[in-house]
Every structure is written in structure tokens, then in C-alpha cells.
């Protein structure tokens, strides 16, 4: 049943997000292919076109980033807590399947969006810059690997895992806010947005405290300790952050599950 | 064919009456196969359960019978049909007479009036 | 007779408001049952509980002998009093959706009924009139071979021609082994197709009876009995 749910979530998203991300890709390619032609034209015209291009590009770039998230969270809200909920919640599927289908689709589209954004940046840079771009990445990973004395693949894997958990955290926090909003008798969208703003502040504050806390601990421990244990400390900080993210994900998921399962409030 | 049903009497009784009427007047001929319960119900815009009940009632009276695989048929027994039609006629006449008596007419006056009207109609 | 649904001491509270007050009733298989009561009497709440769109504050519901769960959802075909299909869907999407999730969905039956109304598979729901959307939804719901159909106010606010279409669609697709629970306050329109009625007022069941028994007993139509019971 998860697969079937996913099929319709994908079908819905594809119509809107396929178009949006496709437009970004095509526009980036157009810029890359068109730039030599552009520079051969008159100064004035190419200047205007460049400004126009940059304007639309920034719009598409940031637009696709924001729209991807908004479209997917609105899909969650509409499917779960509006009239469409009368269909979704009477299907013979479990609550966890419903949430997981939304989450997996959301995650896939977020990845697709990130890939499209990266591709568009590569297009903008032009093939001449690609080598520099990639070496920046490899330098970043190898320097960390060197500093902590950990193999590069482990660093890459750790980074990927952190990215996955952070994205999941972002997605589930959105679902959490929608679930809170659904408890209100009216103005549910507004309630969800306010919840999100408040939650965002709390998370930023929490992250800040965690960082300050760990940095001061590291600072205290650094005195008279061998360099080898720097890696251990960084590992601890990393593991701690991952555990916190995991706990946050579980809490957001659990809450969303509870509301959809036990406190369904369709007017 | 129209089905005029009122809501203040049990629907199945009205269905029985209507089907009886159709058999007596020859809309359904002796030995003819009746439409299925579903078709009859949909024609009358009633619940198939109710139509089923009405047909079962007719079956009890012997006016229709079921052949296990082929469906429901009107009885071949012409005498029975005749008998039921007489019964129905008698009950209509009884009702008529009681109404006429309420109008204050004597039995003699009723008979005379009937004869008079029948003569008029022949002309 | 086969007990299809049993409700025991069902109570539902919304804050301080009592929507259902200790309701106990049972529905048998093979009946068309009218759930009748004025607006706000608890009809929709009862149907929402049966379909697990809200959970009772206390009490128990059994469907085909099982407490409400994911499996009981596949036994019930539900028509809510609103449009629940995403308006981005085409008719073909909606049909695929139903046949994906409900194993008892009869695709060819649905397609036949849609063809009779000249609704094309490529039509988008967004572009349909309200009446067409309602008919599409009814066709999808009645094309399932469910054990129980819950129809919430199927004829509220429709013109007489549409009402006739809706009632004949319900009757033509009704399988005498199944049961249909129709909630409505428009009694005279449906009473000729009902086997049984349940009167509900202020969250309590005031009467449950076979329709013909009620007519014999009172010598009146169900509509008249309803007007007497619910006289203001």
C-alpha cells in the first residue's frame, strides 16, 4: 500500500515540480549555450539581457527551492486535514504508511531539487570552472580527513548521513507544524505558520546553545590533551548532534502520527 | 407502465396489489415469465428487498411460481386468476356499496342507479 | 440475521458539546437503512465514527464482528457530504485510485455508468460542475462491492432530476447481501426505498423500526411520523 500511496503523491508532485525544476534546468542550459552569442551582440543589448537573465535566474533558483517545500507541505496539509482527508483517511492503509509516503516523496523531490540547483550552478560557471568546483569539494573532504585522521569515505558518508537527517528533520518539522495547526478550529494555515516561526526560533536557539556548550567543553578539554583526542571530541560532537536530530525526527513523526491517528480534526 | 405508490401504506402491499392487477388485466399473461426482481424494483423505484417480499406474497397466494433456474412465472391456472379477479371485484363492490350507503341511498336506489348508468353507457 | 454493525454505548463529546449520547444500535446485512434526524442531531458524527474519521469518546463499535481497524475500512464504502477527490485528478486517475486501493472496486461498472453520463476519462475534476462531481463520486462509491455503504446526505441540495438519478444509481447497484446506511433529513424523498429507519435526536436514538411495521402501526407515512416525533 505504501507504494500505491507513493504513486499518487509522485503523480501529483510531478505535474508541478517536474515543470518547475525542468524550467530551471532548461533556463540554465540556455544561459550556458547562449552566453557566447550574447557577448558578440551590442554592448547595450547584452547588458540588458544579462541583467534580465540574472533576474529571472535568481527568481527561478530561489523560487524552485521555496516552491518545492511549499508545494509538498501544502500537499500534506490538503491530503490530511482538508476535505481530501475524507478520502485519504478512509483508505485501508495505516497511518504510518500515509506519513511515510508523504515523507519519501518529499525527500526524493528535495534531492531532485538540490541536484537541479547544483546542475544549474555548474551551467552558470561554465565547463572551464568545473574542475575548480569539484576540487573544492575534494579539498574540503580531504582536509577534514587529514585533520581528524579518518579515511575520506568515512567523512563523505558522515556528511551524507548528516545531510539526510537534517533534511528529514526539516520535513518532519513542517509536518509537525501542520499537525499542530490542524488542532485549531479555524485559521489552520495561519496557526501552522506561526507554529513554524516559533519552532524555528526554538531550534536555532537550541542549536546555538548546543554549539556554545560543546565548544566550551572542547576548549576546556584541549588543555594538556594529545592531538589524537581532537578527533574523538569532534566525533562526540557529531554523534551528539546526530542523536539530537534523530530524537527530533522521532518526536515530530510521533506527534504527527498521534494527531492523524487519534486526534483527527476534519471540520 | 407506471407505479404510483403512496407512503402511508406498506410499500410491499401496494406492490402486491399492482402486480395482481397487472396479471388479472393480462399485462402479464398466464404462464408468462416475469422480469427479474432487480428489474421490477428498478422500474418501480423501490428497494429490491421490498419487491422480493411482494413477490413472495404473490407466490404464497399461488399467482406466481418460481422455477428453480428459469425464474418467476405467472401461474397457468386460469381458474385461479379468474377467482382472484372475482375476489378483487367483490371487494371493490363492497367498498362502493358502503360509500353509497353513507350517501344515504337505499339498496333499491343503488341498483336502479347502476342500471341507469349502464344503459346510458351502451348508447 | 447477520449482525453487520454493532454500536455499544457510543458517546462522542466535542469539548462541552455532546454529539452522541450513549448510542447502542445494530445494523443487519441486506437492508437499506435510513438514518434520519434534523441537522446537528449526530448523524454525521455516527457515520464519521464508523469510517474512523473521528474516534468515540467512549463506547465500542464492531463491524462484521471486528473492532474498527484498517481492515474494516475495506468493508465500508463511504460517500461524505463533500467533495473529497483532489481536483487535479482526471477521471481516469480517480478510477485508477479506487481500483488500486479497493480490491472490491468494479472498474467496468464505473466506466459504464460514466459513459452513460458522457463523462470522459480525460475530463479533469477541476473543470467539472458541482453536480457532475457529485455524480462521479457517487458512481465511484457505488461501484465497490462493499459490505456496508455509508451515504451521508446524498440528496441534499440537488434538483429533482439529479435526485432521481442518485436514488436509481443507489438502487441499481445495491447488492441485496450488503447494507446501505443513508443519512438524510429529506425523508419523503427516500422513504419508499428504505427497509428500516433510525430516528436520531440530540445524539440519542429515539426509534429504530422496520418501515412497513411503522406504517402499519401508525397508519402514516414515515415522513408524518418523523414530523410528529420531531415537532418543535
Summarize this entry quickly.
Chain A is an all-alpha fold. Chain A folds into 2 domains: about 1-125; about 145-265, no CATH class. Chain A has helices at about 1-40, 45-80, 85-90, 95-125, 125-150, 150-180, 190-220, 230-260.
Structural notes for this entry:
The complex is a heterotrimer of chains A (267), B (123) and C (232). Chain A folds into two domains: 1-125; 147-267, no CATH class. Chain A is built from eight helices and no strands. Chain A has helices at 2-40, 43-81, 85-88, 95-125, 127-148, 152-182, 188-222, 228-262. Chain A starts with a helix and ends in a 5-residue tail after the last helix. The mean pLDDT of chain A is 88. Chain B is mostly helical. Chain B folds into two domains: 11-76, Arc Repressor Mutant, subunit A (Orthogonal Bundle), CATH 1.10.10; 79-122. Chain B has a two-stranded antiparallel sheet with strand order 1-2. In chain B, a hairpin with a 3-residue loop joins β1 (64-67) and β2. In chain B, α1 (11-24) packs across α3 and α2 crosses α3. The radius of gyration of chain B is 18 Å and the shape is elongated. Chain B starts with 10 loop residues before the first helix and ends with a helix. The model of chain B has no long low-confidence stretch (mean pLDDT 88). The radius of gyration of chain C is 18 Å and the shape is globular. In chain C, α5 packs parallel to α6. In chain C, strands 6-7-8-3-9-10 form a six-stranded mixed β-sheet, with helices on both faces. Chain C has two domains: 3-75 and 146-229, P-loop containing nucleotide triphosphate hydrolases (Rossmann fold, 3-Layer(aba) Sandwich), CATH 3.40.50; 84-145, no CATH class. Chain C has nine helices and ten strands. Chain C has 232 residues and is an alpha/beta fold. The model of chain C has no long low-confidence stretch (mean pLDDT 92). The chains are: A mainly alpha (267), B mainly alpha (123), C alpha/beta (232). The interface between A and C is medium-sized, with 23 and 24 residues.
Amino acid at each position: 500500500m505504501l507504494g500505491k500511496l507513493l504513486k499518487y503523491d509522485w503523480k501529483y508532485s510531478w505535474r508541478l515540480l517536474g515543470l518547475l525544476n525542468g524550467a530551471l534546468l532548461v533556463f540554465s542550459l540556455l544561459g550556458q549555450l547562449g552566453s557566447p552569442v550574447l557577448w558578440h551582440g551590442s554592448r547595450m543589448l547584452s547588458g540588458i539581457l544579462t541583467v534580465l537573465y540574472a533576474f529571472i535566474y535568481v527568481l527561478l533558483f530561489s523560487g524552485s527551492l521555496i516552491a518545492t517545500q511549499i508545494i509538498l507541505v501544502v500537499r500534506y496539509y490538503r491530503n490530511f486535514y482538508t476535505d481530501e482527508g475524507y478520502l485519504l483517511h478512509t483508505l485501508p492503509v495505516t497511518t504510518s504508511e500515509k506519513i511515510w509516503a508523504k515523507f519519501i516523496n518529499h525527500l526524493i523531490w528535495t534531492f531532485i531539487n538540490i541536484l537541479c540547483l547544483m546542475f544549474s550552478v555548474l551551467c552558470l560557471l561554465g565547463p572551464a570552472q568545473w574542475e575548480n568546483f569539484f576540487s573544492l569539494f575534494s579539498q574540503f573532504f580531504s582536509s577534514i580527513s587529514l585533520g581528524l585522521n579518518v579515511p575520506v569515505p568515512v567523512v563523505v558518508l558522515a556528511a551524507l548521513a548528516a545531510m539526510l537527517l537534517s533534511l528529514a528533520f526539516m520535513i518532519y518539522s513542517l509536518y509537525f507544524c501542520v499537525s499542530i495547526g490542524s488542532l485549531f478550529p479555524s485559521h489552520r494555515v495561519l496557526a501552522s505558520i506561526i507554529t513554524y516561526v516559533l519552532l524555528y526560533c526554538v531550534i536555532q536557539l537550541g542549536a546555538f546553545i548546543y554549539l556554545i556548550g560543546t565548544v566550551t567543553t572542547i576548549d576546556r578539554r584541549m588543555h594538556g590533551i594529545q592531538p589524537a583526542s581532537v578527533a574523538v571530541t569532534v566525533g562526540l560532537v557529531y554523534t551528539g548532534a546526530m542523536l539530537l536530530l534523530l530524537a527530533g525526527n522521532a518526536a515530530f513523526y510521533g506527534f504527527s502520527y498521534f494527531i492523524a491517528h487519534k486526534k483527527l480534526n476534519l471540520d | 407502465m407506471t407505479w404510483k405508490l403512496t407512503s402511508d401504506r406498506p410499500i410491499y402491499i401496494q406492490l402486491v396489489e399492482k402486480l395482481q392487477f397487472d396479471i388479472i388485466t393480462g399485462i402479464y399473461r398466464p404462464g408468462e415469465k416475469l422480469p427479474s426482481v432487480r428489474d421490477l424494483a428498478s422500474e418501480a423505484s423501490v428497494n429490491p428487498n421490498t419487491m422480493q417480499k411482494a413477490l413472495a406474497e404473490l407466490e404464497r397466494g399461488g399467482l406466481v411460481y418460481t422455477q428453480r433456474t428459469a425464474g418467476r412465472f405467472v401461474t397457468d391456472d386460469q381458474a385461479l386468476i379468474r377467482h382472484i379477479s372475482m375476489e378483487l371485484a367483490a371487494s371493490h363492490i363492497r367498498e362502493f356499496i358502503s360509500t353509497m350507503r353513507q350517501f344515504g341511498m337505499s339498496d333499491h336506489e343503488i341498483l336502479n342507479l347502476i342500471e341507469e348508468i349502464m344503459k346510458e353507457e351502451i348508447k | 440475521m447477520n449482525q453487520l454493525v454493532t454500536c455499544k454505548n457510543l458517546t462522542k463529546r466535542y469539548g462541552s458539546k455532546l454529539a452522541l449520547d450513549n448510542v447502542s444500535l445494530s445494523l443487519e446485512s441486506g437492508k437499506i437503512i435510513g438514518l434520519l434526524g434534523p441537522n446537528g442531531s449526530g448523524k454525521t458524527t455516527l457515520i464519521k465514527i464508523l469510517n474512523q474519521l473521528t474516534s468515540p469518546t467512549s463506547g465500542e463499535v464492531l463491524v462484521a464482528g471486528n473492532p474498527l481497524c484498517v481492515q474494516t475500512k475495506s468493508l465500508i464504502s463511504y460517500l461524505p457530504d463533500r467533495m473529497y477527490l483532489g481536483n487535479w485528478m482526471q477521471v481516469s486517475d480517480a478510477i485508477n485510485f479506487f481500483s488500486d486501493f479497493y480490491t472490491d472496486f468494479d472498474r467496468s461498472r464505473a466506466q459504464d455508468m460514466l459513459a452513460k453520463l458522457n463523462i470522459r476519462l480525460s475530463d479533469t475534476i477541476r473543470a467539472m460542475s458541482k453536480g457532475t462531481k457529485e455524480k462521479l463520486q457517487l458512481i465511484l462509491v457505488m461501484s465497490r462491492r462493499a459490505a456496508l455503504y455509508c451515504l451521508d446526505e446524498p440528496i441534499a441540495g440537488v434538483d429533482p432530476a439529479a435526485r432521481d438519478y442518485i436514488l436509481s444509481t443507489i438502487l441499481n447497484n445495491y447488492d441485496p447481501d450488503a447494507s446501505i446506511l443513508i443519512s438524510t433529513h429529506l425523508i419523503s424523498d427516500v422513504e419508499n426505498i428504505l427497509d428500516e429507519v433510525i430516528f436520531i435526536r440530540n445524539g440519542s436514538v429515539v426509534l429504530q423500526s422496520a418501515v412497513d411495521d411503522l406504517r402499519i402501526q401508525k397508519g402514516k407515512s414515515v415522513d408524518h411520523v418523523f414530523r410528529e416525533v420531531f415537532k418543535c
